[in-house]
Amino acid sequence: MPGIDDLPIRDELRGKSPYGAPQLDVPVRLNTNENPYPLPEPLVRRIGERVTEAARELNRYPDRDAVELRTELAAYLTRTTGHAVERAQVWAANGSNEIIQQLLQAFGGPGRTAIGFEPSYSMHALISRGTGTGWISGPRTEDFTIDVDASAAAIAERKPDVVFVCSPNNPTGTAVEAETVLALYEAAQAAKPSLVVIDEAYGEFSHRPSLLPLIEGRPNLVVSRTMSKAFGAAGLRLGYLAADAAVVDAVQLVRLPYHLSAVTQATALAALEHTDTLLGYVEQLKTERDRLVAELRATGLEVTESDANFVQFGRFDDAHAAWQALLDRGVLVRDNGVPGRLRVTAGTPDENDAFLDAVRDLMKELNR
Ligand code: PMP
Question: What is the chain's Cα-based Rg?
Fold first, then answer.
């Protein structure tokens, strides 16, 4: 049977595995940082209305520039961050993964490099590879924060074209201070200058304010966001960025024409009408996240401070065995390959109770 390696595929893709969190059928799934709450019924009905309207015009291509949606996203950012953002500064795509891909297509590519501070979101490296962008793995400290001096030195030495800063960081939950972003931005401008992308996929869950106001007066700073987490709409596939309007012009050079379907735009607009209800769920999840941190610590585990809707915990002598032991108890968490550690997404109170029971049971077994 011929395999991938028998194909005339690009050399850098040979022997590689696709992104793949296991999608297993178990009672408690807390492995992909999804929002556990289904969309509220009034919103589901509103989506039906909006999509019906859009369906009447599906013979036509959608609004290529997603004007109405970008206007509403700009209003949402302005209202929730307190920093005035205009439509021309916002761009939307099919998930923030596509936002990242478009940024790398425009600012990375063959002969160029991107840097991230690892462990961090693995797709930054994978999308870099997919776009022919060289990947540089930058450092992180023992406690998973960014060491400003070491990171600025790495930027000065390697001169990457794109710098990824994930805040709150996946999989550790660590938020990045504004001063750190500013120091890295300065280093990146002195070295190249390069584009600095703050991945705020989990921004709404943070104890701290958004880093978005930092885009003011910094034309090479981009903040990327998503409706997959706080809006509870991972199935929608809607990500967006805010930056100087010139960055939006730049990604339009690489985006596919009509990339955002009329159905997607209609659904996202309906969800934005229900922002207040959805952000109410975010508050509940933050409380549950803080409870997970406290209760995991009470079992004697080492828990990384979290500003996201997930928590990194350990240390296990064998993290993969611990992952399997939790799975055997009906709870699916994530092994991100961080030595000794696992990651759990904050679910509903019942799901979190089931997870905590499984952990206590496992700890008893391990301490025996
Ligand atoms: N950034 C980070 C840090 C993430 O964890 C994720 C999803 N796991 C994404 C971006 C991509 O999310 P989406 O494409 O669903 O917007």
Answer: 21
pLDDT score of 20 more than 80: no
Residue type present at position 87: R
Question: Which ligand 1 atom lies nearest to the CA of residue 169?
Answer: 3
Confidence of residue 51 (pLDDT cuts 50, 70, 90): very high
What DSSP assignment string belongs to 116-175?
A: EESSS-HHHHHHHHHTT-EEEEE---TTS---HHHHHHHHHHH--SEEEEESSPTTT---
Ordered by where they begin, the domains of the chain are: 23-38+276-367 (3.90.1150.10), 41-273 (3.40.640.10)
Dihedral (CA of 335, 282, 275, 170) sign: negative
CA-to-CA separations, 264 to 200, 239, 253, in angstroms, rounded: 21, 11, 21
304: which 2 tokens?
């990384």
96 lines ligand 1 (CB under 6 A): yes
Average pLDDT score over residue span 118-143: 96
Q: Sign of dihedral through CA atoms 325, 326, 332, 337?
A: negative
Which atom from ligand 1 is nearest to the alpha carbon of 237? 15
Predicted TM-score of the model (pTM): 0.96
- Residue in 102, 226, 343 to alter for ligand 1 test, most ligand atoms within 8 A of Cβ: 226
Residue 165 Rama label (left phi>0; alpha psi -120 to 50; beta) = beta
Q: Which residue carries 């109405």 as its tokens?
A: 68
| Number of CB atoms found within 10 A of residue 364's CB | 10
200 lines ligand 1 (CB under 6 A): no
Ligand 1 atom with least separation from CA of 238: 16
Q: How far is the CA of 174 from the centre of ligand 1 (A)?
A: 15
Separation of alpha carbons 276 and 282, rounded Å: 10
Cα 96 to averaged position of ligand 1 atoms, centre (Å):
6
